[in-house]
Amino acid sequence: MVIAETGLHQPRKGTIERVFGFFLRLLAVYALISGLVYWAGLTGIAGGGQWRFDLLAPSVRIVFTTLAVLMPAAALGLWLATRWGVVLWVLAATAEIAAYMFLTGTYSLRAGIAGANMIGLIGLVLMAGATLIERRTARIAAP
Q1: For the whole model, what pTM was predicted?
Q2: How many domains does the chain have?
Q3: Which phi and psi (to 5°) does residue 55 adopt?
C-alpha cells in the first residue's frame, strides 16, 4: 500500500496477478471439496462405510485424518489469498501424492487425485513465477 497526501491507496494489480487470485480461488474450492470428501469417508457417510476411521489401517488413518484437517484449513487460506493457505495446500497436496506413491493398495483408485494435485502444484509454481515477473517489470517501469 502507498500512503500519499490524499490518503491510503492500493497499488493496481496486474492481469496476471488477478488471474493468479482466481487460480487460488479455484484451488480453494478443490481443497474444500477434497476435505469434505475425507471427512465424509472418515465418518462413514461416503464409500459405503469402508473408509470409516475405525476400519482403516493405522497408516491410512494418519494420512486421511491429516488431510481431512489440512484441506479445509488450506481452502480458507487459499480463498483469502494468504501465504499460509498456499503453504498448507502445498503440504496437503504433497502428502496426498506421497500417499498415492507409498500406499498403493489404498490409493490405487485415487490416481486422478494425485494427478490433479501435480497439475495444481505445477500451475501454482508457474502462476507465482509469472506474478513475480509482472511485479518486477511494473516496479522497473514505474518512475
Answers
A1: 0.82
A2: 1
A3: -100, -10
